[in-house]
Write a structure and sequence with these properties.
InterPro entries: KR_dom, NAD(P)-bd_dom_sf, Sc_DH/Rdtase_CS, SDR_fam. Keywords: Oxidoreductase. One of its GO terms (molecular function) is 3-oxoacyl-[acyl-carrier-protein] reductase (NADPH) activity. Pfam families: adh_short_C2. By secondary structure, this protein is α/β, with parallel strands linked by helices. The protein has a single domain, classed as NAD(P)-binding Rossmann-like Domain (Rossmann fold), CATH 3.40.50. The protein is 46% helix and 15% strand. A seven-stranded parallel beta sheet has the order 3-2-1-4-5-6-7, with helices on both faces. The longest helix has 29 residues.
Amino acid sequence: MEFDVTRPLLADKTAVITGAAQGIGYAIAELFVSEGARVVIGDLDADLAAVAAEKLGGQAAAVGVRCDVTQSGDVDALLSAAIDAFGTLDVVVNNAGITRDATMRTMTEDQFDQVIAVHLKGTWNGTRKAAAIMREAEAGAIVNVSSISGKVGMAGQTNYSAAKAGIVGMTKAAAKEMAHHGVRVNAIQPGLIRTAMTEAMPERIFAEKLAGIPMQRAGEPSEIASVALFLASDLSSYMTGTVLEVTGGRFM
């Protein structure tokens, strides 16, 4: 495949990104817009989604939609909003997530169920609903955000680690189902990324995590966004079912 280097990587593409009102999701949306995409920001907080869309350029470039990814009807509405606003659905990034950390001894069933619902069922909803639309166009890219926790397992995160590992298996299975329809499905496993969530960690815990990173620093949301751009664009046109670790070498 040949590339026009003068053309933005996502020119004339429409991308839906869940959990994109802030943090990693917003960084992805911001980079996608800079590369020519129109974006739809899905977020549980409708007001934050609207503010984020306005910051990205308003209705010509971005719209914000309230979406609870655990509800299939909400995901349908989110994807429909993209088609209604911009005419196509070319990229979906399933990024929405929560944490409810606790040891197995103290974790409640509700804390377990919430995390599994948002990460695993939410990603399944986003993947299957997007795939149903993209297969008609015989083109599309789905990017699922897992975590290095899904590779190694983290103490206090039996719920989160299980969900993030599940996303890897789901990504590979979906990639096999959708490849002959022209739809690619890949995943990213971020490591320690500097976000509001990680910066709220106790300093001792953050330092312990940092000590295990060969590059000796936390990653930035923009460094996840650039990998999402790679997987969303034709730069990765012969890649599907892959899992890219973006960890500074941690747990390699």
